[in-house]
Design brief:
Elements (H helix, E strand, L loop, with lengths): L1 H49 L8 H9 L8 H16 L18 H24 L10 H10 L11 H20 L12 H23 L4 E4 L18 E4 L6 H25 L1 H6 L3 H13 L21 H24 L2
Antiparallel strand pairs: 1-2
Length: about 350
């Protein structure tokens, strides 16, 4: 009996130890679960904070501060603005998010698409500065700093290591600052900026193409059948392969907000670039009486930056009960593009 009693006692002790282990393990698991929930809440709050878009700023005030009372040289406004816009991509809340591989950046898609829209416009302007604005003739030598800047800005925006996108873009900004330093020094003549109507038309032609594409992609949010006009206007035009006379165009519902924020970022960058062009090409625009045309384009682009009060990008029918944010954005982009077309035609006149 005594042996049985000892065995029962030992079994009881083991059961007691097992219960204690389960209790302590449960507390540990609850603690781990609490930490995970807290980290998720912090990541959610940080992601919300990072998703705030940078505000617009006054280009004239920024350029005036840069000049510090000195005479404003042609090209300083455009170069300074390109530096400021690209620097904003690096230094805004959360920094550059397009190549993030860790939470919360990897979970975000609106701001990365906004960044891509800004980056595309910055690439186009840097290309125009390299090929047109800084060269007096088609046979003149390009500026080496602008050549380096353009190549850096065209680096893959999704690269997160060896090298990271940020390091390449910062090198591009550094090259722009080198060009700006030589441009603003009247004692140096190896950096120039030629504010001519043909140079401005060169850049505007690229802007026209970008805005036209964005307008079409935004309008495709509701889907529509479009006639194929690829060969319209040319009697003997041909193409590599055949295509149907009508095509169904519709943006996938998973990409609607991506296109919207890309357009919003593109418009944000472009309105600042046009404000800088308004300063550097003031004499050209005055000669063509085109200042008001530029101002109207800027006003249309500023309308694209109005606050969004909806938690999601709505995709209602064109005349339905719900809003369609993409069609509203397409309206402003299309009007800005029409203004760009008119401005190019005005600049082409003698």
């Amino acid at each position: 009996m005594e042996r049985l009693s000892n065995i029962g006692q030992r079994i009881g002790e083991r059961l007691e130890d097992l219960r204690d282990d389960l209790v302590s393990g449960g507390i540990f698991m609850r603690l781990i679960g609490g930490v995970i929930v807290l980290l998720l809440l912090l990541a959610l709050a940080l992601g919300f904070y990072w998703s705030s878009e940078p505000d617009s700023y006054s280009v004239r005030n920024t350029v005036a501060t840069k000049a510090s009372g000195q005479p404003m040289l042609v090209g300083v406004a455009t170069t300074t603005t390109l530096i400021r816009v690209t620097s904003t991509l690096m230094d805004k809340q959360g920094g550059f998010l397009s190549n993030d591989v860790f939470p919360p950046g990897v979970w975000l898609d609106n701001i990365p698409n906004w960044e891509y829209g800004v980056l595309i416009q910055s690439r186009d302007l840097s290309k125009a500065m390299r090929e047109a604005f800084s060269r007096s003739q088609s046979q003149s030598t390009e500026d080496s700093a602008l050549a380096r800047a353009e190549s850096r800005f065209n680096f893959d925006h999704n690269s997160w290591a060896v090298p990271a996108s940020e390091s390449e873009y910062r090198q591009g900004i550094k090259s722009l600052k080198d060009y700006l330093a030589r441009l603003a020094d009247e004692d140096q003549h190896n950096a120039q900026f030629f504010a001519r109507a043909d140079n401005l038309r060169y850049w505007l032609s690229t802007v026209e193409t970008r805005l036209g594409s964005l307008s079409q992609r935004l309008s495709a949010s509701v889907g529509q059948r479009r006639l194929n006009t690829d060969l319209a206007g040319e009697e003997r035009a041909s193409r590599s392969t055949s295509a149907p006379s009508e095509v169904e165009v519709k943006t996938p519902w998973t990409e609607i907000d991506d296109v919207f924020y890309e357009a919003r970022g593109s418009a944000w960058a472009l309105l600042h670039f046009l404000k800088a062009i308004e300063v550097d090409f003031a004499d050209v625009l005055a000669k063509k009486n085109a200042q008001v045309s530029v101002q109207q384009i800027i006003r249309e682009l500023e309308a694209t930056q109005e606050p969004i009060f909806s938690p999601v990008i709505m995709n209602g029918d064109g005349f339905g009960a719900l809003a369609n944010h993409s069609l509203v954005m397409a309206s402003y982009i299309s009007r800005a593009n029409a203004g760009i077309i008119d401005l190019r035609e005005l600049l082409s006149q003698g």
